[in-house]
Amino acid sequence: MMGGMAPGAGLSPEVRSNIDKLVNSNKVVLFMKGSKQFPQCGFSNTVVQILNVMGAPFEHVDILADESLRVGMKEYSQWPTFPQVYIGGEFVGGADIMIQMFQSGELKELLERELNS
Question: Which residue, of 7, 55, 81, 83, is most buried by count of CB atoms within 10 Å of its CB?
Answer without folding.
Answer: 83
